[in-house]
Amino acid sequence: MRVGIPRVLNLYSTAPFFRTYFETLGLQKQNIVFSDVTSEGMWQEGAKYGSVDPCFPSKVAQAHVHNLLFSHHDPAGKRLEVIFFPSLTHVPNFVTDTVDDASCPIVAGTPNVLKAAFTKEVDFFAQRGTRYLDPALSFAEPLLLARGMFEALGALLEVTEDESDHACRQGLLALAAFDADLQRRGRAVLDTVEAENRIALLVLSRPYHGDPGLNHGIPEEFQALGYPILSIRSIPKDRTYLERYFQQSPAQSDPLALSGVWPENYSANSAQKVWGATFAARHPNVAVLDLSSFKCGHDAPTYGLIDTILQTARTPTAALHDIDANKPGGSIKIRVKTYAHSLRLHQERVEDEAARRQELSHRVAVKELELLERARANTKDLSELDAARLGESIEALRQRVASYHPRRGPEQETGLVRLGRRRADGTVERFGANTTIAAE
Ligand code: SF4
């Protein structure tokens, strides 16, 4: 059996769950088919079925269903027995104190709207010999999620409820493993920029803005200029790591809580965007690229809040709140260039501050060395052990003082940033081309 899944909306954040579910129940990897990444060609070819005019991320879903139906499904050859486009009413959320973890209603309703669009005059699914399944599923309630998966797919896949439940558990484990892997990569980016006094760019957006057809390649442009890109999902959620930045925040004593900053946080993706802003506001090496789609009613209430958080912290931010189907190449280039200039200035400030910190620490070491040497000269009756310890401390300080070289930080490399892991002494051990970023 082959199953087609549109590469859209919150499937960007939940796909590992569904892929693992199908694989656990025996589908071959190559028989789980995602639609292509959004492109202008795909949009023009498959955009004539919609009957509503909301934001581009939901409008473009019709082009993805069309892509599955007409490019990946061949009624006479390699068939897609099913196009599976679940209505996700609630999605996983790492923010701990949300009022609810709902999806945007447009995200939740799009699969059903598309069923109507592709069947209203001609039933394209029947005509091309495939089935369209759009069960309502909620990640907020794992038992209901498992029940919904079994009801939608159990008979079709010829599995028992126990087998389906087992596949759901494997799916949730795969989702957690995927998150952990992304966070390890995010940690590597953050460690590298911290150790080298550089800037990483956090893209504040919804998961599906990772689609290059939706973000118009803007994050890649900054990456090519030497600013590594972080997604909200890739920020480490390890509390010990986060407490370094959130420890003096009465409004967020739990670093993953948000209600002290935004009490009406019932939408999972919106809450994550605002949380991402609170992290960027506290991290000196993180700047923000805030992306929103034109006509996004769910982002609108967060604009003021995110703006206030980032402005108060003076975190460099570029906000593009009107991205749509058209790629205004010229205007994007101007905005990228303008923001890149601000980022360069910010980077200089970060380097200057690091140089000042180093100089201060050097002066303290010089003074300490002077005092210890004076103490040794003036103290006659030290035990052999104490004298040896004092000698060691003096030698360590001498080496530290001798190794100090006043500088403004390393020359910034251009192009892609080579990641690494920060050693205990603050230097960075580079990952080789084939290194796996393993769990610590
Ligand atoms: S959250 Fe915004 S961009 Fe996403 S589907 Fe809803 S309205 Fe569209």
Structural notes for this entry:
- The chain is α/β, with parallel strands linked by helices and 440 residues long.
- The chain is built from 15 helices and twelve strands.
- It has a four-stranded parallel beta sheet with strand order 2-1-3-5, sandwiched between helices. A four-stranded parallel beta sheet has the order 8-7-9-10, sandwiched between helices. The protein has a two-stranded parallel ribbon with strand order 4-6.
- It is elongated, with a radius of gyration of 27 Å.
- The mean pLDDT is 91.
- The structure holds iron/sulfur cluster.
| Helix-residue proportion | 40-55%
Which overall shape is indicated by the principal axes computed on the Cα atoms? elongated
Biggest sheet statistics: 4 strands, parallel
- State mean pLDDT (0 to 100 scale): 91
Give the distinct bound molecules. Answer: iron/sulfur cluster
What is the first-to-last residue Cα distance? 39 Å
Structural class: alpha/beta
